[in-house]
Write a structure and sequence with these properties.
Number of helices: 4
Distance between the termini: 20 Å
Radius of gyration: 18 Å
Largest sheet: 8 strands, antiparallel
Order of helices and strands: EHEEEEHEEHHE
Number of strands: 8
């Protein structure tokens, strides 16, 4: 990281990840390494990020060819009112994606996702799983490197 004064520890980065509604995943799109980015609703459990998706599509084709990913999370980004800068909190994860095929693991990951994203309707979770598990893809990303970065407003507390 170039600006070491803005680098934050892993605990900070995990806090940013856990506070975000989504992250943007960067994948390698072609053999020449062209980038492909897509926003994903992600939830973290330990050192794994989970997301759900369709069973096919470009994202999955790319992940099956090259499972390396980089996911960026922006917890906040506020423009200064008196200077040409922004104040932000962000985290970046590099890791390896993997498809979850075991039914019980899929249900567990989907439960973790739904508890985070739709906690108010968890009473309907089992019904939804019985209807749609077979047509729902579930993937994880093993977090191998996690970094955090922050630019605070002058005078802001630590």
């Amino acid at each position: 990281m170039r600006r070491k004064d803005r680098e934050r520890d892993r605990a900070f980065a995990l806090e940013v990840i856990d506070s975000c509604e989504y992250g943007v995943a960067a994948l390698s799109a072609e053999e020449d390494g062209a980038p492909y980015c897509i926003p994903l609703s992600l939830v973290r459990e330990g050192d794994v990020l989970y997301f759900h998706c369709a069973l096919e599509g470009r994202k999955l084709d790319l992940l099956r060819r090259d499972p390396r990913v980089c996911v960026t999370f922006v917890g906040s980004n506020v423009a200064s009112e008196d200077d040409f800068t922004t104040y932000f909190r962000s985290a970046c994860v590099t890791g390896t994606a993997f498809e979850i095929t075991d039914e019980q693991e899929k249900i567990h990951a989907l439960r973790v996702l739904c508890q985070r994203l739709t906690p108010g309707i968890m009473s309907r979770f089992d019904e939804a799983i019985s209807r749609s598990l077979g047509r729902t893809g579930v993937w994880g990303i093993r977090m191998e490197e996690v970094t955090g970065k922050e630019k605070k407003r002058p005078g802001a507390s630590a």
